[in-house]
């Protein structure tokens, strides 16, 4: 039995994750789902967004399906996502961006950089420490090279012309690419953000540091129709956590208008994590057929609700062939 921890989180997480869960359950009735509560709503109610018991529950799962959480600008509130990434050592954030004529995978270092969590206040300033370590750089470079070896080439996104910490990152990525025999190039991240929009077909696997990867992958979301289309995986040596790229979107929560495709595709990545390529392809095909019929949520120019879109995908799955 494969045990999947389900974290709806906050906001539209309560709407899109049930859709993804239903789709996964339809193709994998052997999955055992169990709920874990984390997030701002829990923090408001109990004073704790995520405690040691929660982390233990997540560690007990074979994989985690995660919604979205609200992070308020409160100095007493610790980011739940950053906490889970650090506690489970989910050092690789994998974000595929696909469309007509391009198929990009952005590999983002996930545990350090400006999201190191090392921050403090002084009398006249607030400080965040940007950490780029040899260990962190080498393991994310190796992860990216493993993917690039199966594909075409590697791009190393950086700002080494300004940030000396990025010199270390680039040097290590080059070493690992040469060791793996992977063709590579280096690009400054500001120029890369523009060029990926203008010429997405030029790119294959991109590796970069934490905040640059966050910004670059959100920018690339434009190519796929918005953040509501983009899934992601947070991978470590032992644990795996799958979530849509978008946030909790409290402004549209509870209105049944959120796009569940990113959550469904995060479920697809979960299936591939277990080498279930047949069902992963079946779900992707069902989403594609649903869109081809003009069934779209409002962000894509349609009128279909979140739940109704999920029901349409389930109908396509019931008509298709499942492995």
From TrEMBL:
InterPro entries: IsoCit/isopropylmalate_DH_CS (IPR019818), IsoPropMal-DH-like_dom (IPR024084). Keywords: Oxidoreductase. It comes from the Archaea. Gene3D superfamilies: Isopropylmalate Dehydrogenase (3.40.718.10). Residues 3-313 form the Isopropylmalate dehydrogenase-like domain. Belongs to the isocitrate and isopropylmalate dehydrogenases family. PANTHER family: DECARBOXYLATING DEHYDROGENASES-ISOCITRATE, ISOPROPYLMALATE, TARTRATE, ISOCITRATE DEHYDROGENASE [NAD] SUBUNIT ALPHA, MITOCHONDRIAL. This is Isocitrate/isopropylmalate dehydrogenase family protein. It comes from Methanoculleus frigidifontis.
